[in-house]
Amino acid sequence: VERRARESLGAHLHRVERSEVAAGRRGFNYRKPEILEDRSSPSSMNSSSVCDWSPLMPHDGLRIVPYRAEHAEAFRELNLAWIRKHFTVEERDARDLGDPATHILAPGGHIFMAELKDQAVGTCALLHEGDGVFELAKMTVAESVRGLGVGRALGEAAIAFARSIRARRVELLTNSSLVPAISLYRALGFVNVPLG
């Protein structure tokens, strides 16, 4: 990802991290953000077993669910479509997308799928980096539902899950040319931090 971002039109690579602090106040720490228990009142629940966030969709039927084996093709194809549109598929992409059970889940990662009326329309993953740190990655939404809140629902579900397992930090790498994605990450509470 880092090499792809640096090669893509000379774009600057961003690393962003998200932090929440107790007592309902939000704070950002550029060195060691933490995810702590959310002490705010619970929001209304949808049918998802992963998150308690009400979708921003104008219609019913959006669910954020944990990855199942039958999601393998949708996970791969959604990600490949996005990568091919913006970059080129690299060896690691092909490996991870070809066998997510081995390369994402087995090392302690998690994958979330957005289903709209039982059809997979989006996905994201938390890649386990070790020591309570996860990378938010493999986040994409089908072109047909972009702008309808599916990406935000996925991001909120991943963050809520990270909080529930007491993750110490969630971070991601992104390319500065992906303006809509960066706007979403900022809306989710991520901030830019120096690479390195």
What's the arrangement of strands in the largest beta sheet? 2-3-4-5-6-1-7
The value of Rg in angstroms is 16 Å
Mean pLDDT: 76
- Assign an overall shape: globular
Termini Cα gap: 15 Å
Reported for the largest beta sheet, the result is: 7 strands, mixed
- The proportion of residues forming helix, as a percent range, comes to 25-40%
Q: What class, by secondary structure content?
A: alpha+beta
Strand count: 7
Count up the helices: 6
User: Beta-sheet strand percentage?
Assistant: 25-35%
Low-confidence stretches: 1-58
- SSE string: HEEHHHEEEHEHE
Brief overview, please?
This protein is of the alpha+beta class. Helices cover 30% and strands 26% of the residues. It is globular, with a radius of gyration of 16 Å.
Structure in words:
The protein has 196 residues and is an alpha+beta fold. It is 30% helix and 26% strand. It has six helices and seven strands. It has helices at 2-7, 72-86, 91-98, 100-105, 150-164, 179-187; strands at residues 13-18, 62-66, 110-116, 119-130, 133-141, 169-175, 190-193. The protein is globular, with a radius of gyration of 16 Å.
What is the secondary structure topology, with strand pairs?
Elements: H1 2-7, E1 13-18, E2 62-66, H2 72-86, H3 91-98, H4 100-105, E3 110-116, E4 119-130, E5 133-141, H5 150-164, E6 169-175, H6 179-187, E7 190-193
Parallel strand pairs: 5-6
Antiparallel strand pairs: 1-6, 1-7, 2-3, 3-4, 4-5
